[in-house]
Amino acid sequence: MSATAPPLPGAAAAALPHHVSSEPFDPGADDALTRDQERFYLASQWRLMLWKLARHRVAVIAGVILLVMYASTLVSEILAPYELHTRNTDFIYAPPQEVRWFHEDRFVGPFTYRMTKSLNMTTLKREYAEDTSRAYPVRFFCSGDRYRFWGMFEASFHIVCPGDGGTMFLLGTDRLGRDVLSRVIYGTRISLTIGLLGVALSFGLGLVFGGIAGYFGGWVDNLIQRIIEVIRSFPELPLWMSLSAVLPVTWSPLFVYFGITMILALLDWTNLARAVRSKLLALREEDYCTAARLMGARPRRIIARHLLPGFMSHLIAAATLSIPSMILGETALSFLGIGLRPPITSWGVLLNEAQNINVVALYPWLMAPVAPVVIVILAFNFFGDGLRDAADPYK
Length: 395
Description:
α5 (180-216) crosses α8 (253-266) and α12 runs antiparallel to α15. The protein has helices spanning 27-41, 45-54, 57-72, 76-79, 180-216, 218-232, 236-245, 253-266, 269-283, 287-294, 299-307, 312-335, 347-352, 357-362, 370-391, and strands at residues 100-103, 106-120, 125-137, 139-149, 153-161. By secondary structure, it is an alpha+beta fold. The strands form two sheets. The chain has a three-stranded antiparallel β-sheet, with no helix packed on it. The chain has a two-stranded antiparallel ribbon with strand order 4-5. It has a domain at 182-391: Orthogonal Bundle (MetI-like fold), CATH 1.10.3720.10.
């Protein structure tokens, strides 16, 4: 005998409401969601890295700064208001000039006053003052000092030039009356490119030797590790100094440039080689690596196509953090007088002129090349952190 359910109370016995949307059916809504999902799941590794990097604001800002600075190296001659070796003998150790906008309570636009020089017979120091009787408007997209663009052809086009008959030393002048700002802009090309070339060489050496040691192991690994330990047993700075000192003084500036690059690269590849070796020792026993080996793939293909992409984030972080060390190495060697030498102009060469503490005390604007060095080092560190996080699949 089956039992019947007791009757529901009056309020609950009413018909339950149907929650049905009254909006018209849109069959394309689900398709749009599906397309977004497919766009994410089918994206390549590099596209995923780019999307994740774009959310790292500090890294994006640092990347923009680096991009602008490296782009400036392509047109250094055009950006600099003066040619690299232009001397203004009437304005030796002239202080930075101020760009003004109003002359005699009237808006003129960006302009500078011409400086007048006098010699203080008590202190025997040059003293400069502004002649406010006339304004010299700054010229834009103008013809100024002639130069050889990348050493190929002569030109005289500049983005900004001093007014006709006036001067524009925004960061002052040095002991020969050369514009410090123009020399800093020219030095950017050498200091930044030496970091890229050096890292490209050390990166290649680290991948090759680290990959060989990690994949083959055995006596090959032991030999490479002993070589790395011997290199790392020497203090870096004294070794840099000793190798730089043996460069012949008769070499041309171009040979000295490549010589310093080689020295920095040959001493910087060991850290990357050890990182690659440790990763390959762990990955070479994975199933996909064994399958590739059984299918007849050569060791070079297994390393390049199967193993190295597995820890790309570490390689990117190592590369971005090695570039600032290269720049600091060149700056230190040139500052000590055993790196690049004039007529090559780099940030280290410019700082070499500010070694004398009396010069720094009297003419502090000669320390201006320190600012771009600090900015570039910080930008590379922030950008490297962002790239490392974007390339890490577990974050």
